[in-house]
């Protein structure tokens, strides 16, 4: 009988008389050292693939589970990544916001695929400047991913000066210390406004709360495009809590009697709310008002009419965020990445020319 094969006559069924509770027990069954077993179960390439696979099969057959807590204590790592959504002034914005759900899903896939667990936090700073330090200094995580900067760039910068494994989805500014992955928001805002102008729009508005740096930068790009065409663009603030947002949009676009014919929305969610308000008011899109969103969420192509929008590469951004964070955890030096946006033309704008 070859005990290293896990059972009599190589059947793969472990002998009930043999107990495997420790690495040493499994090493005796496999006929190798405990160090080889440890490396094999960790998937290390130092162990040849045949031996690695045989040890992993034996571990499953004997129901052996390494003491993960002890392993993490020895390595000084928790195996957990903090994923934090800093809301800042947008306290009414829920985690169920479609943009958050889209990027969270991609981040979760990347992190769990890399063997990490996730600790999710919805942070409302609300005058508490140590909100990020409480997370980074908790000892509960190996690194932190922030989804957005909100109006908290100064605090993120302070923490990044002494906490390296931190990567932020957001806007890159000159001289910025913290590592960001995100879209060129200024270019995106410009693309949206330029497209509306090319489609014949002349009375423009930008809808979105500019307290956060990303949205403010999109407005900057839209204004540059309008100015280049000899036009102006009004700013309409919009709360990201759904009911208040619709009320504000309705007041600005309908109740005020404003005669806009082109709207750049700061996000697809805002664009969809705008589309709903205009439909209820009997305003035709794109006949009366043309509309451009920002994000290209999966539902953007399912609205009626389908939404013209500026696409962010959310899935690729999530992949890059996790890759950069893992490198920072391992002590490597990383740089921010700015991804180019893409205009996706659908049916809320008229054909050009």
TrEMBL record:
<dbReference type="InterPro" id="IPR000843">
    <property type="entry name" value="HTH_LacI"/>
</dbReference>
<keyword id="KW-0805">Transcription regulation</keyword>
<dbReference type="Pfam" id="PF00356">
    <property type="entry name" value="LacI"/>
</dbReference>
<keyword id="KW-0804">Transcription</keyword>
<dbReference type="InterPro" id="IPR028082">
    <property type="entry name" value="Peripla_BP_I"/>
</dbReference>
<dbReference type="InterPro" id="IPR046335">
    <property type="entry name" value="LacI/GalR-like_sensor"/>
</dbReference>
<dbReference type="Pfam" id="PF13377">
    <property type="entry name" value="Peripla_BP_3"/>
</dbReference>
<dbReference type="InterPro" id="IPR010982">
    <property type="entry name" value="Lambda_DNA-bd_dom_sf"/>
</dbReference>
<keyword id="KW-0238">DNA-binding</keyword>
<feature type="domain" description="HTH lacI-type">
    <location>
        <begin position="21"/>
        <end position="75"/>
    </location>
</feature>
<protein>
    <submittedName>
        <fullName>Transcriptional regulator, LacI family</fullName>
    </submittedName>
</protein>
């Amino acid at each position: 009988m070859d005990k290293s094969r896990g059972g009599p006559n190589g059947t793969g069924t472990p002998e009930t008389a043999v107990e495997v509770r420790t690495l040493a027990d499994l090493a005796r069954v496999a006929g190798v050292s405990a160090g080889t077993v440890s490396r094999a179960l960790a998937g290390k390439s130092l162990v040849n693939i045949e031996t690695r696979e045989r040890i992993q099969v034996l571990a499953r057959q004997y129901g052996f589970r390494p003491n993960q807590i002890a392993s993490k204590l020895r390595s000084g790592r928790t195996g957990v990544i903090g994923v934090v959504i800093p809301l800042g002034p947008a306290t009414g914005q829920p985690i169920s916001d479609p943009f958050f759900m889209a990027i969270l899903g991609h981040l979760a896939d990347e992190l769990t695929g890399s063997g990490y667990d996730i600790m999710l936090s919805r942070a409302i700073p609300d005058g508490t400047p140590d909100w990020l330090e409480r997370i980074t200094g908790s000892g509960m995580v190996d690194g932190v991913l922030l989804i957005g900067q909100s109006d908290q760039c100064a605090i993120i910068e302070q923490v990044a000066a002494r906490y390296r494994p931190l990567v932020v989805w957001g806007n890159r500014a000159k001289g910025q210390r913290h590592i960001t992955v995100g879209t060129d928001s200024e270019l995106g805002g410009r693309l949206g406004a330029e497209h509306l102008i090319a489609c014949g729009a002349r009375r423009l508005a930008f809808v979105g709360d500019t307290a956060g740096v990303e949205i403010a930068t999109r407005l900057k790009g839209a204004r540059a495009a309008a100015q280049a065409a000899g036009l102006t663009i009004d700013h309409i603030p919009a709360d990201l809590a759904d009911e208040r947002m619709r009320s504000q949009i309705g007041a600005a676009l309908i109740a005020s009697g404003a005669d806009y014919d082109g709207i750049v929305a700061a996000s697809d969610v805002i664009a969809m709310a705008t589309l709903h308000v205009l439909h209820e008011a009997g305003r035709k899109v794109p006949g009366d008002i043309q509309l451009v969103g920002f994000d290209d969420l999966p539902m953007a192509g399912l609205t009626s009419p389908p939404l013209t929008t500026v696409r962010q590469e959310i899935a690729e951004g999530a992949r890059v965020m996790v890759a950069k964070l893992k490198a920072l955890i391992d002590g490597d030096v990383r740089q921010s990445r700015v991804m180019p946006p893409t205009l996706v033309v659908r049916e809320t704008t008229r054909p050009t020319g």
